[in-house]
Amino acid sequence: MDSKPEVVRRAPLILAAAIGVACSATALPFYSIGPLTKPLTEAHGWSRSEVQTAILFSVGLGALMSPLVGALVQKYGARRVAMPGLVGLALSFFLASISGSSILIFYLAFAGMAVLGAGSSPVSWTRGIASSFSRQRGFALGLVLTGTGLCAIVIPQLVTAMIAWGGVDFALIGLGMLPLAIALPLAWWLFRPDETPPANEAGAPDEASWGISLGEALRGYRFWVIFASIACIYLAQSGIVANLIPAVTDTGVSAQAAANVQSVLGVSIVVGRIAVGYLIDRIWAPGVAAIVTFLPVFACLMLPGSDDYFVIMACAVIIGIAAGAELDLLAFLSARYFGLAHYARIYSMFYAALAVAGGVAPFLFAAIYDRFGSYAPAFQVGAGLFAVGSLILLTLGRYPQGAGRQPE
Prior knowledge:
single chain; globular; 20 helices; disordered C terminus
């Protein structure tokens, strides 16, 4: 048996999946809408809430597609579903670039990201990783899901630079080229996951034959605890992250400095992904989750209206670490509490809650700004959502016996 750790042996698979997540229909629209918001309002006269509503079509409509993606992944495998999704996402960005001042076409393009790009969502990438790793599954998922952090680091800077160089339409074309020219070739070459979970060190399949059905999961309380937690945390997180650049520039900070703040948030997402992925292989995952996702309560209360750049950066770090933890935890908890036999279907239902929250929250936070002229009320609501979403995870209890080894 090869003595190298799993994450070393399967490093090319992790790399391809991480880039796929970074260039997915979940990450690219979400992390690009912040730096696009003000330029679009200036170019076309749209309000901030009108621009942010586009996320409702891309991420939010993805909620309707998620169960279908889960079923397709279960039937055809992650690789065959992920790659067409990358092509569909690219085409949708190209449509957005020619929308002109028609906000309906702009919305149609973002809807296309959800429908045509659905296969590129984390449902596909995480299923490929979950079935290919055993002892280091949490760490591997954390490494793969650093793709969203990479997106948060690079995309605000890249979009800001592309807008300055060629305008907002040029930036949208550039965004469309990323999944087509980078993620797709890597997925074709390197993303070749095992469709059957690997054997553990004793030689027996680890979670290979264990797993409850979607119907059984829906009848249990743990499914609804995780579902509610995801909804609360993602409502808060998505509303804050998507509106972070406008909120920071409202304090007088330059657009470039605000992009730097979001890039710092992206670095924190990467740190959160890796650190939490490492910890949950060793420590009870809901306990780790509760601590990490409760800390943003303080950031939400400190951030609105602060003109202290150090405070703004510190809040971005806290929110970023929590954002980094959540997707990793979602994939890990799905595998541990419900098994891999029906992972794609169950995870896709959780992802639907994430997508709805991620699609609705940016619009709601922007609408609150349009109503009150301040993001403070929205951030206060976000603090409450983080508190509820984090604490209810403590009710999940021990992993089921069929889920494999219990952490210390």
